[in-house]
Input
Amino acid sequence: MIVKAVELTRIYRLGSSHITAVDKVNLQVDEANLVSIIGPSGSGKTTLLHLIGLNDTPTSGKILFNGDDTSFLSESERRKTRLQRMGFIFQTFNLLPTLTALENVELPMALAKFSQKEQMGKTVNLLETVGLAERLQHRPKQLSAGEMQRVAIARALANNPSLILADEPTGELDSKAGCEIINLLSELCKNQNIAVVLATHDERMAEVSDVTYRICDGVITLE
Ligand SMILES: Nc1ncnc2c1ncn2[C@@H]1O[C@H](COP(=O)(O)OP(=O)(O)OP(=O)(O)O)[C@@H](O)[C@H]1O
Ligand SMILES: [Mg+2]
Output
């Protein structure tokens, strides 16, 4: 088991009103599983991924990561866990525009203090894995949307994560590029033993996922 959420709740308070964005969520993510969380806009998907990714702290409930209760981690331990154990993929790619594909993928390795030599060899391998061996020196604006998302996937793999969190990774892509990205994530899951949690509106995800959760008004149900 990679992740277990127990009665996870996140309430946003704005003045006198409050929104329960994630409401007593229980979920489990196992090794090498592709887990999708499908729900409409505003249902709490991004909030839930932020909690699982240790980018936010729950109002109540807890998250176990590799069996350890993350409630007791310090901010620096949370940062280290994110950097060394998790990879993140976003709808709008979040690549640094002035860096090449290679440099974007190197960044998390540099932050994790890999040597220059280790970074170089591994980066080229990762970009080959995502089918971009011919695009190493391209900057984001010189790439198609599907290619940018591939660079982001290579970056997410940089530090050998056990978990990848993907928030609407196909939201900006046409249907063909979207399918290719889903297939790539699904292959990585099985070939590299990485768990992937993917939040989406896209009903087609239910067909390719190992486990599907539905989320509505912060409440999750297992399909
Ligand atoms: N920082 C915040 N402060 C207050 N309310 C917030 C905050 N972030 C999100 N919300 C509210 O929490 C609810 C869930 O938002 P969230 O972004 O998690 O939904 P989502 O499922 O990711 O939506 P989308 O599909 O549009 O990305 C929404 O009602 C939203 O307005
Ligand atoms: Mg969202």
User: Anything to note?
Assistant: Residues 12, 14, 19, 21, 39, 41-47 surround adenosine-5'-triphosphate (ligand 1) (CB under 6 Å). The chain has a mean pLDDT of 97. The chain has one domain: 30-45+76-222.
